[in-house]
Structure formats: structure tokens, C-alpha cells
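Sequence in, structure out. Go.
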Amino acid sequence: MELHATEPYDFEQSLRTLSGFDPCADERVCSDEDVVVGGFAEERPFLATVREGRDTTTLDATVEWIEESGDDRVVADWLGAFLSLSDDLEPLYAAAADDPPFRRVLDTLDGYHQVRFPTPFEAACWAALARGTPTDVVREQRRELVTSVGRVVERPPPDYDGSDVAADGGSTHTDSLFLFPTPRLLLTGAPVVERLFPEHKARTLVATAEAFATSALSTLDTPELLDRLESIWGFDAWAAEYVAVHGFGRTDRPPLHDPGLRAAVEELYGLPEASDDHLERLGERYGRCSGYWAHYLTTWAARRDEAPTL
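Output:
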């Protein structure tokens, strides 16, 4: 099926981010030309292979249903949100004409649309696990959550030639793709979650699943969404803001609780210390794209020193 992106769009920018986006690295397989991702669409597990289409604003997506077939259109919406295909960057780029330092960032990220967590619920669970915990530990806890109440799908890599067959007839060369559980799956497996994790984290995960299962969070405007997320047991202002940005793609304001943004602003604009006032004043020219301005800054900073991965 064909997916459409709002100009300007560069799929290679998405691939580069996907190749280095640690929280969800085991949910996808990236190559120079495509990415394979997995998830649930209306509770049905699927894999989707996405590659550039007939022009720069189209993508081709092939859906593989793991069990019972579902609605490909639901997967199209899932992928569109994940890759932020409908985001309009023109106002951001136009406003940057009066911001010479930020033009350097645009030169690096031209055509980049935000890559979110595959679902807002997964972003929320990451935030629930991440508080006061080293990233490598959070990744391992997330894997435990997926293997316990989600789904792991084994498949041959795209370039597999059929050699090295195992004794049972299967391939000895497989990619493992982790399909993060839906709120319903996590709630069904709540007793397992409570055994796996410390009490505070388990309670926060279950409360998060309850909130996502019972509330149409995506319909809320940003202030209401932040308030509702912060009301989840175990959440704070940082977690609410993190999920709003990285799960729901809310980019209408700079994330004031992101220390990485402050460091990037200090470097790019030559500030000794970036205050809330600096963030709001510098982002003001970008209006409802001020959160995108912030996201470009943190993405630019994250890429600056990384080794090429593609």
C-alpha cells in the first residue's frame, strides 16, 4: 500500500533516526533502503516493511499479518503517526529565515519528520520505567515486559538465501522483532507485571495501561493531555511532557523539562545557561512549531557526534 508524506520529506532522514533510536531498537530491522517494524493493529499482530515509493513524498508499505488478517488501513494510520508523515514543516522552515544559527540545523535535517515511539502507550511505559533508572536497565526491563505480555516474532533477514537450515526445518538465521503490548494485553498480564517489576514501577505500568484503555487521550488538546498524563499514578511533569512529545507528537511548545534541549540551545546560540525564558523567547518566532524547533535541536545534537550507521 502507498503512504503519503507532507512536503518536505526525506525518508533517509527517518531511516537514520530509526537506526539510532535506542528505546525501540529491537522492534525493527533497518537496512539502507527500508525498515521492518512490528506492532498491533486493533489487537492483531503485524509486521510492516516500509521503503521509499515512486517519489520523495510517497512510501511503499507491505503488511504481513502474523495470525488473523486485519485492516491494512489501520496499519497505514499506525505508520503515519509513527513517522509523523502528515506534519507540515513549511512554517518551521519559513520562520528559520530570521534565525541564522538554526539554519545550520536545517541544513543537517532537511526533510526530517519526527520519528516517535511506535505508539503513545509505549512511550508512556518507557517513561514509567525510566525514572531514576539507567538506560541500559530500562531497555532490559522493556524487553522483559514484551517477552512476558507482548509478542516476539522470528523472521529470516531480508537478504537470507535459505542456507543453514536447522534440524527442525527452520532457519538458523532469524531476526527477532519485539511487538510491544497494547494496554489490554498489559492489563490482562497485570499479575505477571507485578511479579516482574518493583512495586512502584509495576503500579505505574498498570495505572498507565488503565489510563490508555479508558481514555481517548489523543483527542485532548495539549494542556489537557499534559494534565491527564501527569494525573497517572507515578507520573510527574517530566513524564507527561515526554509522552506528549515522543508518543503523541505534540510539538506546539518547547519541552521545558528536557535537559538535552537546554544543552543544545546553549551550544547553538552561545548561551552560558538556557533558562525557561530563553527557551520560550527563542521558540516564540516558531509559534505552534516551537516544539518542532526544539525537536530539531535535540536531534541535531544527538546526531552531531554519532558514527554513521547507514
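Check: Residues 120-153+170-246 form a domain with the Endonuclease III; domain 1 fold (CATH 1.10.340.30). The chain has a mean pLDDT of 92.
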